[in-house]
Amino acid sequence: MSAMKSVAVSQPVRPRMPGYAQLLLFFFPLAVSSSLMTLEPLIINSAISRGPSAELQLAAFNVMFAVALVIEAPVLMLLSVSTALAQTQASVRRLLQFTVVLAGTVVTIGLVISLTPLYGWLLVDLMNIPPEVAAAARPAQAIMALWPLPIAWRRTLQGVLIAHDRTPVVTAATVARILALAVTLAVGSAIAPNRMLTISAIAMQIAVLAESLVITGPALAVVRQLPSSAGEPVFSWRWLAGYYQPLAVMTLMRQVSRPLMNAGIAAALLPQRSLAAWSIAWSFSMLPFGVTLGLEQVAIAKGRTPPSLAQVRRFVWGTGLFLSALLVLVAYTPLVHPTLRVLFNMPADIEPMVVVALRWTAALPLIQSLQALWRGTAIGQERTQDARTAMLIALGGVALVVLVGPRVGSLSGVAIGSIATMLSALVEAVWLAWREQRANRSGRLAKSLAT
Length: 451
Description:
mainly alpha; 83% helix
């Protein structure tokens, strides 16, 4: 096991500590890519809000998207794992084999949920989603069941590109994704304006397929340039499953938190209006969050030695503070109203709820940046169980707010969503920071004992 482990995660140490300029050049394409990707729900919300039955359709999209994210959760960490492990041709082949098996399993689960009575039990009976909202979401949910397969493929190949400093290709592929989404939505709205939720699901499928096609060629070209490692052992299926399992559980719990939050919102005052408002607030808050997504890859790829990791930490703190300052600038100034109206053309009765949510979550980008730093460090140091435990604690925070919040009569659904989001993010970040400090102390102690 130990011999196999060393083969699996051994990484080439970069001879020099990366400077801030090098980190920025590496990170900027990832930030652009993840920011563009977070435009996806914003673009869809904007398209739906301009159609008929906007409030019902927005609420149904919020529910559909949340469930789709839960179903695809097990494949999401393929990006980070590939960034950490894609060092030889043999390792990439094993990662792609693992990707196909995992994605096929997830697609099967999604089809079972969307096409059987399990759907009604989960959404209406368990999550307390209004029946009319659940019924409106179901056709799109069935279409989205196929979504995890191209997602898994492109995330694994993205990790190959990131691990070998080809981050601009990631941005180009995301541009193709957003263009495909926008074109499909425009065509669909002209053909079937009354079916915008279903059109949105089809557009999301076409968009991620376009992204996968753009990623595949350059990634496979990188693989051909990697060492073949002929005759050397590659990590086993058992080792890879053990390394990946805590991360898959972590992302599953993370995605479960959103429908759990929706259940709490639906149990509070004005459920349909609150669900619609939270859908827009979440889409807007995802804009700065998108930038933070690439910071995890920076920590994994560039923080391989103590000096370089210290440099990465400073870079992440600066990025997080800058992003939160931008959100504060919008949420707490008169800019918030014209910004929301231009982006979403939202119904006037939900705008005050959206503004409250944005103000309550203004510090979220900084917390999420630190989460990305400490989670990436844990993955790079093979402490994947720490990432899973942190998410379990965060999910407990969401569950606490969801259980207690609706019993407080004066709390709106949007207030419950905002409190749950902030509490869960904070406790997750604190746990990851504490575990990193313990790991650092243990490493220093082991080094002193060895000398």
